[in-house]
């Protein structure tokens, strides 16, 4: 039994550290398969250089939208409720498959961490009873 592949749902991506990656034409069932420079699979955006820059930009944007709600929750005085929101909504978005992409480029990972810590510091600056050491332990 042969593996059936749909050419319309298939793409080619070559992984290389070269600056000028050679583009080849691939065909399957007499139709050309497009070549892509990044591809999303199981929630992770892979790129040609495997530095995960598109993925980190995506999760940073998504996490900032979720963390922006912390600024809007000014009526909530319970720090534990806000902390619970962060731990259940924002942190899983940030940490999803981080064991794969976090070591690829340290500067990209520090970008994600700094945005998250900035949003967490909003809790600290709005007068909630917490200390900076607890803030670091939370993240």
List keywords for this structure.
139 residues; mainly alpha; 2 domains; two-stranded antiparallel sheet; two-stranded antiparallel ribbon; 4 strands; elongated; disordered C terminus
Topology (elements, then pairings):
Blueprint: E1 26-28, E2 31-33, E3 38-41, E4 44-47, H1 53-72, H2 79-95, H3 98-101, H4 106-125, H5 132-138
Antiparallel strand pairs: 1-2, 3-4
Helix pairs in contact: 1-2, 1-4, 2-4
What is the number of domains?
2
What is the total tally of β strands? 4
First and last CA, distance: 50 Å
Shape type = elongated
- Fraction of residues in β-strands: 5-15%
Helical residue percent band? 40-55%
Structural write-up:
It is a single chain. The protein is elongated, with a radius of gyration of 20 Å. It has helices spanning 53-72, 79-95, 98-101, 106-125, 132-138; strands at 26-28, 31-33, 38-41, 44-47. It has 2 domains: 7-39, no CATH class; 44-138, no CATH class. The strands form 2 sheets. It has a two-stranded antiparallel ribbon with strand order 1-2. Strands 3-4 form a two-stranded antiparallel sheet. Helices cover 49% and strands 10% of the residues. The chain has 5 helices and 4 strands; from the N terminus they run ββββααααα. By secondary structure, the chain is mostly helical. The longest helix is centred in the middle third of the chain and has 20 residues, at 53-72.
